[in-house]
Amino acid sequence: MSKMRMTVAATMVSLGATVTLAAAEGPCDILDAAGNPCVAAHSTVRALYAAYDGALYNVTRASDGTSASIGLLTTGGFADKKSHDSFCSQLDCVISNVFDQSPQKNHLGQRHKLINASRHPITVGVDKTAVYGMWFDPGFGYHVDNTTGIATGNDPESIYAVMSGKNFNGECCFDYGNSETDDRDDGCGTMEAIYFGDAHWHGNTGTGTGPWVGADLEQGMYYGGGALTKNNSGSMPLTADFVSLALKGRVDGFDLKGGDATQGKQLTMYSGPRPVRNRHCGPASYQPMRKQGAIILATGGDNSNQAQGNFYEGFMATGVASEATDEAIQANIVAV
């Protein structure tokens, strides 16, 4: 399959890729088959399972407060933009929910302001199917506190997301993943989420000027751990229009991966022990973890909401997925 070709304007992206129109396996099918079932699967762009035929997200009109669920053009396919545009013809809709496609039904809802549903159109596939991504300015964010199936304590998990290397900042925190259930900073090790941006929390940095894939573990966004807690020269900037990201939380450490979501393979940016405890941790540490199992998008565990970025899809799975599974997921993302 050929790589995507794209042009990017302020809020408009055009992509083309050679893909089949029939529903192919999604990333959650790959994870399920590998023994790491998805426990959360969120996207406004596409189905993350070949057999999924439900709604992707909910939109609400400002004019009259009426809501509508936006589904798929075909089972296992792309979002139905025509239905979106018909309902939101005045461009006054917000995305009020992003539905969890997994059996766990961990749907995302409002935490901060809700994004404009029609701000970020993109096209995907060989036929340039039009859909919408999510464009976040500071002050916006989603979450769900009461979840099922999400890792808690020191349980292992694998988290994946597609974001953009063109829209980011260094504020807290453009995250997707596991967070506190009380919407408060409960101390080091109480969350485990993908972070994407160029923050230098506690002086932490990767190579160059970023943006980098990191792990928000509470009281810090980290690009590495152990001896690489402060400065990880192996963490390379991810500046493509679309970037694929992965965070795998092991019982004894964590892995960070990133790559171009339109071509090639992911690079392992870090694999090793958890970060060295910082002065804000008190008696707590990052090993073992004390994850609580909420899910956040575009916001920090402590309700911080000054980050910005773009979100296209994210999914969370039980256990630590294998290298072969990661490679299959990357290939699946590239093929979109």
Topology:
Layout: E1 5-8, E2 13-16, H1 27-33, E3 38-43, E4 57-61, E5 67-70, H2 81-87, E6 93-98, E7 109-110, E8 121-124, E9 129-132, E10 134-136, E11 142-144, E12 157-163, E13 175-179, E14 192-197, E15 212-216, E16 221-222, E17 243-249, E18 254-260, E19 267-272, E20 294-297, E21 309-318, H3 323-334
Parallel strand pairs: 2-8
Antiparallel strand pairs: 1-2, 3-21, 4-5, 4-6, 7-11, 8-9, 10-21, 11-20, 12-17, 12-21, 13-14, 13-20, 14-15, 15-16, 17-18, 18-19
Brief overview:
This protein is mainly β and 336 residues long.
Total helices: the number is 3
Mean pLDDT over the residues: 93
State which percent range the strand residues make up.
25-35%
Cα Rg: 18 Å
Instruction: Supply the helix-strand structural class.
Output: mainly beta
What sort of overall outline do the alpha carbons produce when their principal axes are compared? globular
Fraction of residues in H or I helices? under 10%
What's the N-to-C terminus distance? Answer: 10 Å
SSE order in H/E notation? EEHEEEHEEEEEEEEEEEEEEEEH
Would you report the number of β strands?
21
Largest sheet: 7 strands, antiparallel
The low-confidence parts are: 1-22
